[in-house]
Batch of 3 targets.
Target 1
Amino acid sequence: MIKQKITLKKHLKHLLPYLVFSVGMLIIILYDLTYSIGVDKLIYIVYLVFGLYSFIHIYLYFEYYLTNRGVVLFIDSENSVIKYTRKHESEILISPETIRRIEIHQTHNYSNKGDFLTTDNFRYYKFFLKNDKQVIITSLLCPDLEYDISGKSEIIKSVIASILFYKSSID
């Protein structure tokens, strides 16, 4: 069994692309402010896009963190069983027999592993269990989770894989 929980390494996996992008943009902004390159007012549109993009990335990061904060997973790959445990709550067993449906939410570029945008490495699984419980496992908790049951799994692609802004048809 493999134990998964949110660690510093997983934090860095989600934050590093954004930090590299941010440092690059800050260098451009500081250079512009220092030397007044005066590229016209077009540069302010770039700054606005950078600010919006930064907000989206930080929002997704905190959304994923708050969703799986305090969760510990025990993954048994051989039997396709996941034990989902949240602090001060009972353990939930996820197995092919207990699953009614799986939604895999990811960006359009996720499967390409190209990371066109820094938000492309955000992905989450939403398990609908037969006992009417729902379990969400984000890529911040378990980045390399591959759990697919043919006939029960559906991949949902969007520009941004946000948990809050997607309403499932089963909900």
Target 2
Amino acid sequence: MPTTLGLSCFYHDAAAALVRDGEIIAAAQEERFTRRKYDPSFPTNAILYCLEEGDITARGLDTVVFYDKPLLTFDRLIRSYLNVAPRGLQSWLTSMPRWISQKLHIPEIIRKQLHYDGPILFVPHHLAHAASAFYPSPYDDAAILTIDGVGEWATASYGVGEGREVRILREMHFPDSLGLLYSAFTYFCGFKVNSGEYKLMGLAPYGQPKYLEVIKEKIATIHEDGSVALNLEYFGFLDRLEMISPHFSELFGGPPRARESHITRREMDLAASIQAFAEEAMLKMVNWVHTETDKKYLCMAGGVALNCVGNGRILRDGPFEDIWIQPSAGDAGGALGAALAVQFGYHGSERPTSDGLDRQKGSYLGPSFSEKEIEAFLNIRGYPYRKLERGEAAKTVAQALADGHIVGLFSGRMEYGPRALGSRSILGNPLLVETQRTMNLRIKYRESFRPFAPAVSFEHVNDYFELDRPSPYMLIVAQVQKSRCLPRISEIPNDDDLLPVVSQKRSDIPAVTHYDYSARIQTVHPQTNPLFHEILRWFEEITGYAVVVNTSFNVRGEPIVCTPEDAYRCFVRTEMEYLYMEGFWLVKSEQPRSKEKTDWRNEFELD
């Protein structure tokens, strides 16, 4: 049974993944272990975890594979710098030290770090994305679409997956890039590139697409096949250290919004405009891919595939019967895609049978901790707890939520990808209008406008949302059922203060109903997370609703928690009231550190 270790690192969000005979054994991001968000460094800790989970040493691996071809990327950089020389000198001098010390020496680094002397392979970036999209999907035959910022020369690609084979048919090349375009607006609106794009997407419903035509006329053109052509006069990523040029600021009436400053109507309208542009481009790409491939199903990956609003449009308005999106769609997922590409394309492994959902195992692919390990941790530290009897846990959590409390949930294997899916989650009551504001400002310490996702029992999803199929990875946005919606009390005030608008009750599940009556949905299935599904069953028994608020177990600027220590630390230093960890129930008021005045906002860079 061939075993392959896939790696991604040195760009952003490093990760490792282990695949044996076509089956995903383990996958994790390095940030979860180092506690450095989007850690790009060599994923030593993630590798050690994957090897331990697979009960194998590095010497027992058949292949190690990297998710990118660094020499092709280096070729792009050299050609790009030469095209703008001497303007790009500062950017060149900034990037070259890392290339000279790391990125041109990846085989040597892998051998040294792993003490490994077997084959080291390299998979093209977008082929890794394509493999991560198709192989774990429930389909044996599908079209594939990948869209991101840039990988080597490619910025988007489409192809087909058939059985064990993935073929790329066509690529869009740098500098034309939908991902880089969206990131430029992310930067201009005062959010961090490569992490703030989802904030821009969340802000978009508060604005109007007033700048859409300006974007199309001046900045970027969408062709009929969905490819985009950028007007490089407005961008700086070729010859400077910024995403945009001064012309970009002139076009939109002034400099970029300063980070953490007040969000104005300009940012809301810009967010709405670039989101509308992205959705139009994505939909045209999808239509073109359907025409070219004549497939029933579509698989997607790449950072732009995390745009769940666009994904919802594709599902509703696109030509495919169904779509499947890799939950770790960004660079971290490239580690898994590279490993899968080698397993099926190099070793010739057979694809595992689908269990009716997909082959990703709910994306619960990270570390877990046993009851004994957690009990030992609590006892050694002297933290008070109550041991729950088997069968008591779900009801206890559900009752606390029904009573309006915020509960941390730490159970099972950690999620792979950017979304918490009920293993490392913070849960709240969706029926209370104040839940969103409380969780944003007192638990997560983040912007008040940020929406929260509903987790809903899969068998009841259509009772609450205009969705008739699974969405286990929180990657599809759909509308709340109209019968549940309430009219808006007021629009955004002239002072652009979003708090009064955020606090309005828009439906009978207000804490998960966004300003435009949409929701980013997670369907919960007993096959992949029986405890979470049972919590929802009990919550429905108590309240009549099979929905809870689900957000990641972390605060802004920090990765999702990995260990019991991470979870406890987050629990006591926020205003979370209860914590459940694998059979143990902790109450905030009983904890010795719960009265500390530590402010998490002073401990992390707010991005």
Target 3
Amino acid sequence: MTKATSQNTSKAAKRKAKDSEFTFQAEVARLLQLMVHSVYSEKEVFLRELISNGADACDKLRYQAITEPKLMADDPDLRITIEVNKKAGTLSVADNGIGMTRTEMIDNLGTIARSGTRAFIDRLAKGDSDVSLIGQFGVGFYSAFMVADHVEVLSRKAGAKTVNLWSSDGAGGFDVSKAPKALARTLPRGTIVTLHLKDDAKDYLEETELERIVRAYSDHVTFPINLTIEREGRPELRQLNAASALWTRPKSEIDEDHYREFYHHVAGLFDQPAITIHYKAEGRHEYTVLLFVPSTRPFDLFDPARKGRIKLYVKRVFITDDAEIVPAYLRFVRGLIDSEDMPLNISREMLQNNPIVASIRKAVTGRILSEISKLTETDEPKFLSVWEAFGGVLKEGLYEDFERRDELFEIARFRTSAGEDWRTLKQYVADMGENQTAIYYLIGDSLEQLRASPQLEGYRARGVEVLLLTEPVDNFWVTTALGYEGKPFQSLTQGEDDLSNIPLLDEKGKKGTKKEPAAKAEILGRLKTLLADAVDDVRESKRLVDSPACLVAASGAPDRGMELLIERQMGEEARLPVLEVNLSHPLVKALDEISGSKAEEFDDLAWLLLDEARILEGRPPADPAKFSERLNRLVLAGLD
């Protein structure tokens, strides 16, 4: 080679280098740092993004081949292939999709150099970026640099002869050049992204780790995702994903067995779904919904975090199962929602304020409640099994979701003092008796305890139905619900209740026939003085019929059930209750007889009245030892 020829070759090489090297017009290092901390929660999502890009390329080719069948004629089976080279420390993700031209590689893989990137970075740094912009800046592809210190992209556009190679270390720029012939021959069509992994990312070369990530994030990508790994010197190929997005198929092609198998997979449960909800929403936002209402309680139903388990997909790519896509009181629902509108690289953190998620949440919540409500008409026994399993959770919506409270009231079922069957509020209101103006309720730990409660006696004697509430959530929603059909909710254990306007079933027109102690004011006063440290007040009861005494909350204080719940949960002493006594009961009359002559027996009997009232509301005597002593003295006195 002559000196002149050598000089000309050198100049040509320099011109070629200049033509193939590009400088990022943005602070790439800063962008990558912000992306890691602000956009992505976990590094492993890089594989999800690369697979998503590959699936997207396959989708585009499949669509274009409708009018140009020759584009896929030589290789009609679209797929994504992951290849591991442990010796070289590389991980490749290849697809045989639409591929890219040189110009498209510069545009698509260098999108962070577009106009507006600086503004995007500034907004991202402030934490107030519009998540809808993320997909416009190629952030998804650049997630590869979280695990790789060098990335190469080899691509051949479908139907083209030229193969181009894009490469970058993510620091200052990228290079695009024509691929060497030997390398070009390895790629008939599509794209291969090769990651030279960092030392702390070599776990992603392990077969089990790759399989876990693909199963978690991309199991239902509709194209096969194959893994090529070398075993005993020979390459081995196997498919990692199911490659069948059931929810995208027409309902007419899916039978109950398909739904049941998918439910077991997506929910991790092994019962039979009570309700299957499958539909596609079109209009302002497009998304597909495939949800299931289980027939039995999941083990984590009452986990304090109250997180839902609905998976969010974007264009068949898994995003998260923690998107809060439905309110917490529907956390028992399982399944997925697949959006066509959201950016694929949206983070879990940004989902909380995403307007598309908010719109989907509202529509899907309404649909779930509607489907549950329909079940009350089409299959009442199945609905009741759902209510028995999840009614305690659905009732959380009565104080959390004011907008849908009326819908939830129509679904809600209650045990009452009227019998053993479940009752609706509509039935309750329709059966309200003469002069009854409120919906009465009683809260306790069990139905057995509530049915034996002395507070029920006056209402039962008048034929007044009472809601018997045994769920912890009942203590809360009754305090925020204003009422139903104009009838307020009223506790049996809160304040003073005058039932004089509601006649007794067996003694209509015979008011005042029961004999009461002549010195009732004196007895009440003496009881109040004696028990001053244990009760807030002592008064005559209008609600007792057969029992001598009961405890209620003072007027203006929380319901007695709420007081006891706070005492158990928070360890705080409940407020002093009011002791109501039945002046017509023989035990109270006995107080009148011994009030002047047997002070010690009066005191023992008075304290026993209070302890008995505590026992009837499910609490032990305040001082078990003294309770035992007093009881023994009275028994022995009776024997003498």
